[in-house]
Amino acid sequence: MSYAGSNPGPSDPSDPFGPSRPRRSPLRRPLTVALAALVPGALLGWLAYGAWGGTGSGGTDGPRAGAVPSVLGSATTGEGGTGGDGKTGAGTGAGTGTASAPAAGPGGASLRGKVVVIDPGHNPTNYLHTADINSKVDVGTHRKECDTTGTSTNSGYSEAQFTLDVAHRLRAILQRQGATVKLTQDADRPFGPCVDERARIGNAARADAVVSIHADGAGAGQRGFHVILPGAVHAGAADTRAIVGPSKDLGKLIAGDFTRATGTSPSNYVGDGTGLVTREDLGGLNLSTVPKVFIECGNMRDTKDAALLTSGAWRQKAAQGISEGIVSFLRG
User: Could you identify which of 178, 211, 241, 246 might form a hypothetical disulfide with 112, taking C-beta atoms 3.0 to 4.6 angstroms apart as the criterion?
Assistant: First the structure.
């Protein structure tokens, strides 16, 4: 027979039918040991969590709330992302690239809103179109050739190559300062433009200043630069009376800054050492209605001047000097 509620395994050997103790689970001891190990670990974790700000909204100093310091670093825009110049690649520091404002240049504000027309003298392929460039155009006081081939150094470096190179350098400098810059030609046409069209381009742009870049073809031993100013002309389509004064101001500033930037002297064969010459026979000046000057940067037929004109470093100085004169004029 059996008895309900009886438990095998007597608790007292002298009383085999007396009350017995519950049997211990074989897992009890291992669980107790595990819990004893886990509790201190959890407590330490909580304390560390609190030290880093917990789940609250911590201050701005020190680690963010809930943040975990990384030992691997993090990807930023300063390295391998978009740098401060807005280009993809190696950045220049933290932060995303944004369009930068035009540089103001030394001692002044940006040239934003100012228009400068650069007139690179001649054209590299004029020599292939002699009939076209020899055709006559009206320059107010008389009729003269549409354009010429220009001169060159004894080694064959052409004036047209020189003028375009300086024009490109000058454009870059002025654009960095915020000016709108236009060229009358950029070797993008077979010849010209003719001298009357060169004047019209500056007029149509309502330029604040126009500079025509040239190099002279005088005799050996004749050295130095000179700036050509418009004379007071009022004949036919030409009327320079309104621009004579401001053009003279522009020319004086360019002459002074050109000397300082390049270290070269004013012409020893025209201008009586002033570096300034006034002419009334140049269509590009006669037909201009905005302040305009020419600059003959040196004499290509003199070996010493030619050594300068064929130097890229010197041409950069020339562009810098011209730009400084223009900037001074535009800022009044």
Answer: 178
